[in-house]
Amino acid sequence: MGKQQLKKYFSQLSKEDLEDQIIELYTTSKEVKKYYDFLLNPDIRKIIDEWKAKISKEYFPVYGKRVKARRSIGQKAIRELSFLGVPPDIIADIRLYAIEIAILFTIEQNRTNVAFFKSFETQFKNALDYMHKNGILSDFKSRCRQIVTRVNEAQWSNRRNFELLYARYQLKHKQ
Question: Which of 1, 26, 66, 150 is the most buried (most CB within 10 A)?
Answer without folding.
Answer: 150
